[in-house]
Amino acid sequence: MSRAWDDVVRTCGNRRLFCSTDCVDTWLRKTGQERGYVMDPATLWRFAADWYTVRLDPGYARRDPAAASACFAEVGLHGSFWGLPD
Questions:
Q1: Are the beta carbons of 37 and 79 closer than 8 angstroms?
Q2: Separation CA 59–CA 82 (nearest Å)
Q3: Mean pLDDT across the stretch 60-70?
Q4: What residue numbers bound the domain in which 15 lies?
Q5: Residue 83's pLDDT band (cuts 50, 70, 90)
């Protein structure tokens, strides 16, 4: 995520939902893309529910990096992709 804004079109274009990690592997073979961070649907739901819950509230202020990292860790994200320990 630390480099997501380097090419935001590519970043957003590679956010995908798959039915299983086997489907991820098939897509990777077909496209030649590198494997990125893969999360299960339950983690995605926890993340989205927390991350987007107040985005439309008046006075919304973007989380600072420390608060964002805390949010990532609280919902179960991990690894260097998120700037967190494995």
A1: yes
A2: 26
A3: 90
A4: 1-38
A5: confident
Q: What is the DSSP letter of 40?
A: -
For the cut 90, the answer to whether the pLDDT of residue 46 exceeds it is yes
Tokens linked to 55: 């985005």
Burial 50-80 (b: 16+ CB within 10 A, else e): eeeeeeeeeeeeeeeeeeebebbeebebeee
Domain count, the chain: 2
Indicate if 26 and 58 belong to the same structural domain. Answer: no
Q: How many CA atoms lie within 13 A of 79 on its CB side?
A: 7
Question: Which one-letter amino acid corresponds to residue 28?
Answer: L
